[in-house]
Amino acid sequence: HAHKAAMPKKVVVIAAGGTGGHLFPAAAFAEEMFRRDWRVVLMTDARAMDRALGAFAGVALGDAMGMPTQTLSPAQIETYYGAITDFRDAVPEQPVSAGLKAGSITDDMEQSLLLARHLLEREGAFDEQAWAMALLEWERSTRARGVNDLLGPSTKRAIEALLRGVPASETGRF
User: Fold this and answer.
1) Number of other CB atoms surrounding residue 145 within 10 Å
2) Which three-class secondary structure state does DSSP give residue 173?
3) Which residues of 72-86 are buried (b: 16+ CB within 10 A; e: fewer)?
4) What pLDDT digit, counting tens, does each position of 122-155 carry?
5) What's the sign of the alpha-carbon dihedral 90, 92, 94, 100?
6) What b/e readout covers 131-143, taking b as 16+ CB neighbours within 10 angstroms?
7) Cβ distance 84 to 77 under 8 Å?
């Protein structure tokens, strides 16, 4: 009896411009084809990469500008800093970011990068269990660096529920 060679996956190539009106439908189509076990190649122009990098730059800059004031009330911000018009060191009284130098990013940017890495490693797929484990590992490494900017109690409970097998759609209900 003849041995049949494994059939290669079918391939779909999707070309989309660099605007959301083109990329989002292309990404939805790509996700559906991937789910149907097709190999998906998504081609965009350099503008898409520029926009992605610009988005990350915006998150990083906004995060670093807001770092010294996170969790503080407007009155506390006024007392400690006056107006924030540039990157500032966190004051020692800062409950989350004490000791961080001007321009430092926080959990917001770190988790944005962590999510981007998670999606890139899985070619755009999201794995709930792997994401939960990645967040817990991130928190362990953050704690080891002596940073107090950790996962909040609601996020922690949701991750623990997810790891116990609770569906992601139910983990945020307490």
Assistant:
1) 7
2) coil
3) beeeeeeebbeeeee
4) 878 888 888 888 888 888 888 887 776 667 777 7
5) positive
6) bbebbeebbeebe
7) yes
Cα–Cα distance list, 143 to 94, 102, 148, 150 (Å): 17, 20, 7, 7
- Assigned token pair, 57: 């730059």
CA-nearest of 44, 34, 42, 43 to 9 is: 34
d(C-alpha 133, C-alpha 140), whole Å: 11
Token pair listed for 16? 């989309």
Task: With a cut of 90, say whether residue 77 has pLDDT above it.
Answer: yes
- The band of 9, judged by pLDDT with boundaries at 50, 70 and 90, is low
Mean pLDDT, the chain, whole residue set = 81
3-class DSSP state of 125:
coil
The rounded distance, in Å, linking the Cα atoms of 168 and 151 is: 17
